[in-house]
């Protein structure tokens, strides 16, 4: 006889699932273990997927940021300065995240790997080109060589999240006229096509956008709910966090890559997930 999950079980079961996801166990193995222990499979699946999806509440609860509150932060191998902090939503502008030589090298390594950027179709979960995003991009495997490993470790230290919770670096080039219309970096939990992309690591929790060049004109990163935009400056970065420790998602982090009016814009996206990403 199987056991359905009622309200009296939810907190205990949620904590157990949460711990197993953080340890890197797959959603499928957790569901199988719960079913073996007597839980109804549909209820177990729902409980696991609810945690993976997160939720957008009517009132997001801002808890302390994991990032150091210090003005000067030693992140792995580099001293980084926090220039600006905003509490709601949680935004930080950093200086000196990458050296000029590191920026140039990442651009050089990326140029031959670029392909048209894609987004996830919310209905099907398939990656496809979309008119909301006009750019080219490429992905680096997490710590794929010693140079990239050092960058990944620096970013992980700065964001104060385990290296294993991070996705690989995404490098993006926007040519003149390129932009990314307002969007979330997390997967909207109501979209039917996203669960496949959440089963390994859960929702994204925070982003670091690192600017690799000075843009001739345009190309800022805009946060309309916060009423602020950041102009690209080589070596600087913008951090924002949109998943709290309850798994809630902050809709105030909607943002846009404004059109590049002259020249090109090169950036790195570094995304951290809520849980360990299986490799």
Helices and strands in order:
Layout: H1 7-22, H2 27-36, H3 41-53, E1 72-75, E2 78-86, E3 90-95, H4 100-110, E4 115-116, E5 119-120, E6 127-128, E7 136-139, H5 146-159, E8 170-174, E9 180-183, H6 195-198, E10 204-211, E11 217-218, E12 221-223, E13 228-230, E14 237-241, E15 255-257, E16 260-262, E17 265-273
Antiparallel strand pairs: 1-2, 2-3, 3-14, 4-7, 5-6, 7-8, 8-17, 9-15, 10-14, 10-17, 11-16, 12-13, 12-15
In short:
With 279 residues, the protein is of the alpha+beta class. It contains six helices and 17 strands.
Overall description:
This protein has 279 residues and is of the alpha+beta class. The protein has two domains: 7-53; 72-273, Jelly Rolls (Sandwich), CATH 2.60.120. Helix content is 24%, strand content 27%. It has six helices and 17 strands. A nine-stranded antiparallel beta sheet has the order 1-2-3-14-10-17-8-7-4. A hairpin with a 3-residue loop joins strand 2 and strand 3 (90-95). The longest helix has 16 residues, at 7-22. Residues 1-5 have low confidence and may be disordered. This is 2OG-Fe(II) oxygenase. Pfam families: 2OG-FeII_Oxy_3. Its EC number is 1.14.11.-. Its cofactor is L-ascorbate.
